[in-house]
Write a structure and sequence with these properties.
single chain, alpha/beta, Rossmann fold, 7 strands
């Protein structure tokens, strides 16, 4: 079974594209969701995070994401240490998930905003990058997350530039609204299901 990475910057529309693949009966692994789950439920991860960030990292048995974000914001060393705990756990979760898929599955999608940054692309046979104009991406995140524009721009700056992600990818999906993303996904799906 082929592993196809699906990535793109914040607000590019990765989740929308993932849903189109799901409508074609392609299994999709969502790395952000897996990251939340390992933070909440993986005891080894919990212990390492509490050792790194302190016991207040968990409240009522759940990860205190706001507190974690405040601690690592502006501290790249601490952020790298946190990622060094979470990324391997998410990778294990992906491969555990993949093992449970039917053997006849042609390919699966591994959706991750930081596919390249985390090194997860190395496990992928091909990578799809979803791109959109910066202003459109900002508007989407403002609508979705109800945050301030400065916060969105700050998050965008911290990610690998969209152009760099696209240049490292095998397929590009333009999600600016001018082209049908469904047609673009269908073309990629046809390429991926060829013998």
């Amino acid at each position: 079974m082929k592993i196809i990475g699906l990535t793109g910057g914040i607000g590019s529309g990765k989740s929308t594209i993932a849903k189109v693949f799901e409508s074609l009966h392609i299994p999709v692994f969502y790395a952000d969701q897996a990251g939340r789950e390992v933070l909440d439920f993986d005891q080894v991860v919990r212990n390492e995070v509490m050792e790194l960030l302190g016991g207040q990292s968990y409240t009522n048995g759940k990860a205190n994401r706001k507190q974690m974000a405040e601690k690592v914001f502006g501290n790249d060393d601490l952020l790298q240490s946190l990622n060094a705990i979470i990324h391997p756990a998410v990778k294990r979760a992906f491969f555990d998930w993949k093992k449970k898929l039917p053997s006849k599955t042609n390919y699966c999608i591994r959706e991750a905003a930081i596919l390249f940054e985390s090194g997860s692309h190395a496990d992928c046979d091909k990578v799809i990058c979803v791109v959109a104009e910066d202003e459109l991406r900002i508007r989407r995140v403002l609508d979705r997350d109800q945050v301030k524009r400065a916060e969105v721009e700050s998050r965008m700056v911290k990610q690998m530039p969209q152009s760099e992600k696209a240049s490292k990818s095998d397929f590009i999906i333009d999600n600016n609204g001018q082209q049908s993303v469904i047609q673009q996904v269908l073309k990629i799906h046809a390429d991926l299901t060829k013998a």
